[in-house]
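Milestone M4 deliverable, item 7.
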Amino acid sequence: MSAEIAKLPTEPARRKYELFDDTGFDEVPKKYRKFYRRWGGEGDPLAPNEVLCPVCKIVIRSNRELRPGDRVYCMACMARLRVAEGPDGALVGLVEY
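Output delivered:
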């Protein structure tokens, strides 16, 4: 047998983001408010660390860059979401349960 090790393509490191303490979203406990914000509608672009909850239309934010396959939790509507890439290339949340 050959001693070759198959090299898997490595993904670049995820970017980290600093979240502000409070975004004014008071529907979750104060400790978690920095991880949520209200969506501004069609003209509101999402950052690479944000995904829109399709159930309650709240933006879920993360300390790190989100990628397809990641899972996030919406505390506002208690939905578990899997991050996927939409047809336009933006990240969308697909409800798991």
